[in-house]
Specification:
2 domains; 9 helices; 14% strand; alpha+beta; 272 residues; NADH Oxidase; 8 strands; two-stranded antiparallel ribbon; Alpha-Beta Plaits; elongated
């Protein structure tokens, strides 16, 4: 099977695909000057798609589900530096949500963006678990609080802080999931040393893309910590064998809009 599909009428033989190839498996064929991958190099390909993405004449397509090829219209995705600056700076951790659920179709749209996040060697190890039912979100919050209570009077770093959380919880304040209607878990292979970083990158993509869809997010650190140590919560999530939670994020429709940008610590940069 041909590893890359080349439109000979479009290809100019510029060689950019050869230069840009992350694994160095593309060469130009003698005589035709068309890009090709020798059979002995096929298994070295990361399937990153750089060759396809950087081809100025769009003459080349990686032979990986080519029927799903989406054309990139001219000028699409271009964002001015000013717009990007304000969009990113406006991003807030949302802790007040409406009761209206986020439609599954909209969640899938944002996750479809997140699957394009960078990953080591283009391994793409991240899979998703969406807790869409608010009752199940509440159950996960309760199990997280159960785990927190096991930390009382221990040498755990959170031990001194836990009583405050327990007290708030017992007063009816959801300090775990902030009343969010939905939870998102990124899960990864248990034995992969680089997958945790890939998961954080992918979740960050979701976090940044979500406001464009009217979705508010907040990193669910307490829940993520509990999934690492509390077996009842692990059983509740029921991941496939060999998978583990990397991190979690609460999300939903925000009650309030953002109207300003607060200050942050001054930028500190060291140049060498």
């Amino acid at each position: 099977m041909t590893h890359i599909i080349v439109d000979q009428d479009r290809c100019t033989g510029c060689g950019i695909c050869v230069k840009i190839c992350s694994s160095g498996v593309i060469g130009l064929a003698d005589g035709t000057n068309l890009p090709q991958v020798q059979e002995e190099n096929v298994f070295s390909c990361f399937y990153c798609g750089h060759c396809e993405a950087f081809c100025p004449s769009q003459a080349l397509i990686l032979n990986l589900r080519p029927e799903e090829k989406v054309l990139l219209p001219a000028g699409s995705g271009n964002i001015s530096p000013e717009d990007m600056e304000f969009y990113i700076k406006k991003r807030r951790s949302i802790r007040y949500f409406t009761r209206e659920p986020v439609p599954r179709e909209k969640i899938l749209e944002v996750l479809d963006i997140a699957r394009y996040a960078a990953s080591g060697a283009n391994f793409q190890p991240v899979q998703w678990l969406v807790i869409h039912d608010p009752k199940k979100v509440r159950k996960i919050a309760e199990l997280t609080m159960e785990w927190m209570k096991t930390l009382l009077n221990t040498d755990h770093p959170m031990s001194g802080y836990v009583p405050i959380l327990i007290s708030a919880w017992e007063q009816g304040i959801d300090v775990i999931c902030q009343g969010a209607p939905h939870l998102l878990f990124a899960h990864i292979p248990e034995e992969s040393p680089i997958a945790p970083v890939d998961a954080i990158i992918a979740l960050t993509h979701f976090d940044i893309a979500a406001p464009a869809f009217g979705i508010g997010t907040c990193w669910a650190g307490f829940v993520a910590a509990a999934t690492m140590f509390y077996e009842p919560l692990q059983k509740e999530l029921n991941l496939p064998e060999g998978r583990k939670i990397a991190h979690a994020m609460m999300f939903g429709n925000p009650q309030h809009k953002v109207y300003g940008i607060p200050r942050r610590k001054p930028l500190e940069v060291t140049w060498q």
